[in-house]
Predict the 3D structure of the following.
Amino acid sequence: MPNYGDHGDPKRGGEAVHVILQYGARAGQWCYNDASPAMATVLIVSSDSPVGQSASQHLAAKGYDVVTATSATEGLRALHGVEVDAVVFDTGVGDMTAADFCGWLRRQSPDRSMPLLFLVSPAQRWLPGSVPLRIGRDALLSKPFRPDELEEAVQPLLGAATAPAPRTLSSGGLSLDRGLFALAGEAGSITLTPTEFRLLEYLMERPGVIVSADELLEKVWGFFPHTGSSDIVRTHMRNLRAKIRRVCGMREVIRTLPRRGYQFSQ
């Protein structure tokens, strides 16, 4: 039986989940808007009524199917009964952090890779590690935002959703499980921290490519270009290498090239 801690079981109790659909001018017909990707379904999780209502009404008016939830727990519960193509998650919800929500979401649906749009405060927008952002899959949007900015942020995510990333990434004798944040090799398996996972995933997706510390700070941690400290990369790289050795012996799969960067070797 899963332990939901203080959040309760998302399948039980709570408020009703509201579904908003765009209804056409002609009675008895749903309107399909060709500008939206095949009536995609979007889940909006927000405890801020003005934000949630504005987002849901705008997307519904553009032809999307919209499911709204006023808490993270309610959002997870909704996913048991509705297939959605993307999730808009307001980090201001009080019952669960973005990291906790994503953890439950990916354990609940490990074979799905639905993209997330995180609604964040302006300060949180540039705070490294504030949300579990997957490069190329998820996005951030600062509050307050215009309705057209929301749609512009959602549309690329729906494009990414049509080509889901494989559950397992394998290279160099290593297997990285995107659902469990687990790394496996010939000597066993081990769980990675979210940062270690994003760091290794970024390198494994670019085998043989030399990736600079500045690029990692920008793409993995979310720093502005040339603003982060390379010490951050070195510290996490040291911890990551120690875990890699535990699953594949003493073989080094990540090379350090002085003054150039890091290279994942197959």
Notes: The two ends are 40 Å apart (CA to CA). The chain has two domains: 5-161, 168-264. The chain is about 35% helix and 20% strand. The mean pLDDT is 77.
